[in-house]
Amino acid sequence: MSTTTTTTAIPTGTWNVDASHSSVDFRVKHLGISTVRGTFRDFAGSLEIGDDITTSKITGSIKAASVDTGEPKRDEHLRAPDFFDVENYPEITFTSTAIEVVDDGEFHVTGDFTMHGVTKPLTLHAEVTGSEQDPWGNTRVGLEAQGELTRSDYGMTFNQALGSGNMMVSDKVRISLEISAVKAS
Predict the structure, then answer these.
(1) Which phi and psi (to 5°) does residue 52 adopt?
(2) What percent of the chain has pLDDT above 70?
(3) Share of the chain residues as helix, strand and coil, in percent rounded to the nearest 5
(4) Domain limits of the chain?
(5) What does DSSP say about strands 13-17 and 43-49: parallel, antiparallel, or unpaired?
(6) Residue 105 near residue 127 (C-beta atoms within 8 A)
(7) Closest CA to 19 of 136, 174, 182
């Protein structure tokens, strides 16, 4: 009996997300005609990369109250019980459960995504964008990841039907991560 090891474009070890050089963003349709973009300002994450990428572990957490769409009144509404309900559900988390190699440097990362007190599987398409040593001697790796979720699956059902048949806020939310991670010593 033989076993195969799936290697990765990311060297083995522990990598910590550098939030000052990373972003966690989302996009959602408003009134069915325009896209509202937002970001989370407070987040953390790590990658535990082994010799076999399929056994590696990726985790992340977001402070829901750090949501920022550039419109203070909307952000306050997003923090309220109609949406994130940050007083009762202060964190959004992701813990990988499976990593599948798609191509050289491309992966599907499936994990338990918890938001608004509900945990469901979520798959992100991730791509390694490169690695480099920074001027301070740190080894860094870049990753981009995208996915989509249905907010009503997480108990976020606030909405309003419009006369055209469109809804005020789309149920589909697109997620985009741009990550710079630093290898731990």
Answers:
(1) -110, 110
(2) 96
(3) 10, 55, 30
(4) 13-183
(5) antiparallel
(6) yes
(7) 182
Query: What distance in Å separates the CA atoms of residue 127 and residue 106, rounded to the nearest whole number?
Result: 4
Of 68 and 10, the structure prediction assigns the larger pLDDT to 68
Place of tokens 């870049």: 142
What does the buried/exposed string (b/e) look like for 142-162 if buried means 16 or more CB atoms within 10 Å of the residue's CB?
bbebebebebeebebeeeeee
Please identify which residue in the block is written with the tokens 């952000």.
Answer: 75
| Distance in angstroms (rounded) separating the CA atoms of residues 32 and 46 | 36
Two tokens, residue 63: 């402070």
Predicted confidence band of residue 7 (pLDDT cuts 50, 70, 90):
very low
Look at residue 8 in the predicted model and tell me its pLDDT: 52
d(CA 178, CA 155): 27
Q: Residue for token digits 């697109």? A: 174
Question: Which fold is adopted by the domain 13-183?
Answer: Lipocalin (2.40.128)
- Neighbour count for residue 26 (Cβ, 10 Å): 19
Q: Please say whether the beta carbons of 41 and 66 come within 8 A.
A: yes
Distance CA 143, CA 153 (A): 27
The span from the CA of 67 to the CA of 100, in Å, is 30
